[in-house]
Amino acid sequence: MSEKLRIATTSLAGCFGCHMSLLDIDERLLELVEVAEFDRSPLTDIKHCGPCDIGLIEGGVCNAENVHVLREFRQNCKTLVAMGACAINGGIPALRNSIDLRECLTEAYIDGIGVQNPQIPNDPELPLLLDKVHPIQEVVSVDYFLPGCPPSADTIWKFLTDLIAGREPSLPPELVHYD
Description:
Blueprint: E1 5-11, H1 17-23, H2 28-35, E2 36-38, E3 52-58, E4 61-63, H3 64-76, E5 77-83, H4 85-89, H5 101-109, E6 129-134, E7 144-146, H6 153-164
Parallel strand pairs: 1-2, 1-3, 3-5, 5-7
Antiparallel strand pairs: 4-6
């Protein structure tokens, strides 16, 4: 029996919806673990990615920690897949890109409705925010883009099974949609 492929996942600035779709593969996960083992993922709770064959990443890049995690993840993944609208184009988090960061923070933490203790968080434990939310391909090279918000479980399944089988992933139009 040949060695199993290693798959890892991570999430940056997003809603974790792409990971939920991955988990929605349901019983097909059992088929997947026959040919692949999971490194960093919600299935393993491993915090740092080791060398892997396929890396699935969701979310845009909004802070210094996202940049660090993304670069480390890219370094460890032979094939990197930008999964979902946030990873591909910044998604919902990038809606703040049209507003100056200082103005955005002031509205949220100082002038916002219901603010009880007006102060912009300034704890050294918090990652430094970037001026804009960036799609991941602006920071690292990406091998594949898996569209959707989030991509459905069937879309992820088709994409992964093609990739694992050594085929160029091909998604029929009915699998590519934004719900």
